[in-house]
TrEMBL record:
Pfam families: MDD_C (PF18376), MVD-like_N (PF22700). Residues 199-378 form the Mvd1 C-terminal domain. The lineage of its organism: Eukaryota, Fungi, Dikarya, Ascomycota, Pezizomycotina. Residues 12-185 form the Diphosphomevalonate decarboxylase-like N-terminal domain. This is Diphosphomevalonate decarboxylase. Belongs to the diphosphomevalonate decarboxylase family. GO terms for cellular component: cytosol. Pathway: Isoprenoid biosynthesis; isopentenyl diphosphate biosynthesis via mevalonate pathway; isopentenyl diphosphate from (R)-mevalonate: step 3/3.
Length: 394
């Protein structure tokens, strides 16, 4: 059937690093200067849904295309092209070995994707987006590739995306080879190993960010001397302590490394010349709030971390929901979006935050996301491309 439309759909999660990737040793292959480690977040709250399709009936003149959140998205960039090229090459090898297979590698790709949260707002849409793109095309092509092998491809789309091919607790090993063949992700532990991990995201700004991570990290590598200390000493030590904390389900060291690593990353941004500032007054108020919550509890119950933007991600364990979420809920008020009624109902305000901190948070946090550790990409039955090849309108 020359007009048959082949389709595969997948969802993919966001991940938030607790040991940050910041710095490239090879910008073309997207090879990092250090290993990193992240927690994959539940897809009920933050996810990409992507359908990859191909057909001999798709006009060759249109080439490959991607529709992202209903809008055409440029696929001519080197990153998307690298993903397409690698996946097609693997499919072509299967077709060469078994001539009875349909020649999907020669057909144009039409991809339709939706993020159920703001794109390019510092909520790791690129991680979920590239992980979903790679997984969906790999499924379309029926590639026998493991998630680690696919992570090699997703890495070339966006570094942090390689960690979104797994659920739970995920490491991206920097590797040492010049061709990047050993720079890939693996799973440190399943979500079910430590399922009590929760994350409260304080959205301080849903606007597009200032300095992109790609260019920010290149400026840091080129100009910061503190950065050398980070990649040579700080990160290797943080990786070791973090992996053990996860294996032992030990929140105190998990939290301390998370906070120290975020601080170390933002210190290298401040040491970049000219300096880069991702955190703002609201972000710093969130840091103080976490310190006050931990001090009042007499133990570490919450850990903050910040990516290349002002939003705070606060990790905590389910049993400490009242201490952590209760405090933020009463400061921020129930009017803002994102509270899960079942989870906040009846929570008491356990810590009273110092006045300045409370008013900065109240004035600057526009929305929260309540989520937790979750699984990796899932095959989806819902297709964003209809059987006749047209995009599905929703
Ligand atoms: P974020 O902080 O959300 O990761 P970035 O600016 O780093 O923002 O990345 C946003 C870019 O990631 C988008 O412009 C797009 O190129 C890519 N992206 C986001 N979502 C998807 C998706 N669902 N499918 C493919 N690419 C995506
Ligand atoms: C601060 O993965 O967005 O979120 O590889 O250039 O696409 P590119 O960068 P990207 O950088 C993420 C940086 C970070 C830390 C992290 O997720 O580890």
């Amino acid at each position: 059937m020359a007009d048959k439309v082949y389709r595969a759909s997948t969802t993919a999660p966001v991940n938030i690093a607790v040991v940050k990737y910041w710095g490239k040793r090879d910008a073309t292959l997207n090879l990092p200067t250090n290993s990193s480690l992240s927690v994959t977040l539940a897809q009920s709250d933050l996810r990409t849904l992507t359908t990859a399709s191909c057909s001999a009936s798709y006009p060759a003149s249109e080439g490959d295309w991607l529709l992202l959140n209903g809008e055409p998205s440029d696929v001519s960039g080197a990153r998307v092209q690298a993903c397409f090229r690698e996946l097609r090459a693997r499919r072509a090898a299967l077709e060469a070995a078994d001539p009875s297979l349909p020649k999907l590698s020669t057909m144009p790709l039409h991809i339709v994707s939706e993020n159920n949260f703001p794109t390019a707002a510092g909520l790791a849409s690129s991680a979920a987006g590239f992980a979903a793109l790679v997984r969906a095309i790999a499924d379309l092509y029926e590639l026998p590739a493991s998630p680690s092998e696919l992570s090699l491809i997703a890495r070339q789309g966006s570094g942090s995306a390689c960690r979104s091919l797994f659920g739970g607790y995920v490491a991206w090993r920097m590797g040492g080879k010049a061709d990047g063949s050993d720079s890939m992700a693996d799973q440190v532990a399943e979500a079910s190993h430590w399922p009590e991990m929760r994350a409260l995201v304080l959205v301080a700004s849903a606007a597009k960010k200032g300095v992109s991570s790609t260019s920010g990290m290149q400026q840091t590598v080129a100009t910061s001397s503190l950065f050398q200390e980070r990649i040579e000493r700080v990160v290797p030590q943080n990786m070791a302590v973090m992996e053990k904390a996860i294996q032992d389900r030990d929140f105190a060291p998990f939290a301390e490394v998370t906070m120290r690593d975020s601080n170390s990353f933002h210190a290298t941004c401040a040491d970049t010349y000219p300096p880069i500032f991702y955190m703002n007054d609201v972000s710093r108020a969130a840091i103080r709030a976490v310190e006050q919550i931990n001090a009042a509890a007499g133990r570490t119950v919450a850990a903050y971390t910040f990516d290349a933007g002002p939003n705070a991600v606060i990790y905590y364990l389910e049993k400490d929901t009242e201490l952590v979420v209760g405090t933020f809920y009463h400061v921020l008020g129930g009017e803002i979006d994102g509270w899960k009624n079942d989870a906040v109902k009846g929570l008491k305000p356990t810590t009273s935050l110092d006045g300045g901190v409370a008013s900065l948070l109240k004035g600057g946090v526009s929305r929260v996301i309540m989520t937790g550790v979750g699984p990796g990409p899932q095959k989806a039955d819902e297709h964003l491309v209809a059987e006749d090849g047209t995009p599905v309108r929703r």
